Each structure stands twice: as structure tokens, then as C-alpha cells.
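Intended use. Records like the one below are meant for learning the mapping from a protein sequence to its folded structure. Do not use them to infer anything beyond what is encoded.
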Amino acid sequence: FLGEGALNSAFIPIFAEHLTNHDRKKAEYFASNVLNILIIILIIVVALGIWGAPLIINIIAIGFKSNIYKYELAVKLTRIIFPYIGFVAVAALFMGILNSYNHFLTPALAPAMLNISVIIFAITLSYKYGIYSIALGVILGGIGQALIQTPALIREKIKYSFIVDFNDPGVKKLLKLLVPAMIGLAITQINVVVDRTIASTL
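Structure written out for the chain above:
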């Protein structure tokens, strides 16, 4: 959800409002706070995802249980790729920050890092590591999406603060805006899960 626009649809209006009011310090505080809270949540989600990979596969690919090789491979790949969720969510937040500063080219190019990374690893390592080379390409592609935007953030001289403040009015407003956006995306994701569950039985 966070990597597919839900976060930015809630974050950008609040962040841009601070900038419009010429309160850069408050905007930076809000962005740092959201980033730190997001990282904490992502660490927990990724850890649970890696630990609960078998359960995830049982839900979205129940048909694989009839083939132990497919099932075990799916679990392994899920555990390898799951951290991508964290990297792409951070990259999405960076994208929202840069868009608020009227930087559009770099954020627009960032998603291409995934495709480039997967292609490079597939070509160079697939002969040795097989499908695992694709999984590694996905992970590094996610990291690349965040890193490619970092120079633009540095050029804007955005001040980062290590702060976690759940009582920040901006965070509370963010949560109110985030819930309906996530519900809307959840409907789409449910359809995807159902499709994949059915496909796994074929």
C-alpha cells in the first residue's frame, strides 16, 4: 500500500502546506518524523513477513502445497524479496518530498531502477544462481530507487532529525488521510490475491 501511492496521497498535502506557509523547519520536522515512524513500522512488517512467509504462501498460493518443490521455493523467494517492501516505501516517501520541491525527473526515473537491476542480475548471474538472481535484483532495485533520489534531497539541503513523535498534529492528520487511501488500494489488492490464489491451483 505504502509503495503504491497511499502514503504520498496523504503525506504530500501536509508537507506542501508547511512549505507554502514558508515554514521549512516544520516541514522538515514532519518529514523526518514520518520517515522515522515509517522505518520502525517497516522493520516490524518485514520481520513478520520473513517469519510468516509460509503462512503468506498458504494464503496467496495455496495450490503450491501440492508440490513441495514449488512451495519451498516460493517460501524462500518470499523471504528474500520481502525487504523490498521497506525500500520501496522509503523511496515513495522520498518521491513525495521531492515532488513537493518541484523535482519530478529523478522521482520519475526511480522506479526504472527495479527493471534495470533485475535485467542486469538476470543476465549476469542467472547461469549460476537461477531464479535467485532475479530475487537479488529485486532487492537491489528497491535500494536503488531510494538511493537515486538521495542526491536531489541533499541538494535541497533538507535537514533530517532523529525524532519519533506520535503526538505531532501532522502525523495525526496523516493517519486520518491515509486510512481511506489504504482502504481503496486494499480492494484492488484483494482482487490480486484472489487471482494469484486461483492461478496457483492451475
